[in-house]
Amino acid sequence: MDLNQLEAFLTAQTKKQGGITSGQAAVIAKFWKNHRAKIRESLINQSRWENALRNMSWRVDLKTQSKNVDQINTPVAIVELELGKNGQESDFLCLEFDEAKVNHVVKKLAEIEESITSLTQST
To answer: Would you list the domain boundaries of the chain?
Structure first.
């Protein structure tokens, strides 16, 4: 709820029979303005059932050893994900992608972006 919506809601509540007083509305508005970010974060944390992505890092390495000689000096993308819930220890997941897998992931991400764009433009 942005500040305009809050003011409209509180105004409606003060005009409603058995509603709140204008003083109570002022206190609620002040509280909301001072603590809106904390309230939002708290609601988000309460609504999560599963782990969330806390951090992600990536790098590109070159293979220096391999069972197959043709794979030496080929680029490899290393992606490290930190997953967890607030107040709990994190789990770390390390993924390794060769060039074909990176291209596949990029293609899938482009498809996801297209789907999101088409859904948001149609509403």
So the answer is: 3-47, 52-122
For residue 67, give Cα distances in angstroms to 95, 98, 100. Answer: 20, 15, 19
- Rg (C-alpha) for the chain, rounded Å, is 25
Amino acid at position 67, single letter: K
Give exposure, 14-25, as e/b (b: 16+ Cβ within 10 Å): eeeeeeeeeeeb
User: Does the global pTM surpass 0.70?
Assistant: no
Dihedral over Cα of 85, 91, 92, 95: its sign? negative
Contact (Cβ atoms closer than 8 angstroms) between residue 21 and residue 54: no
Tens digits of residue pLDDT in 37-80: 998 888 887 787 788 888 999 999 988 777 777 777 888 999 99
Six-digit token string for 15: 């005009």
- Residue showing tokens 């003060």: 14
C-alpha closest to that of 78 among 109, 51, 101? 101
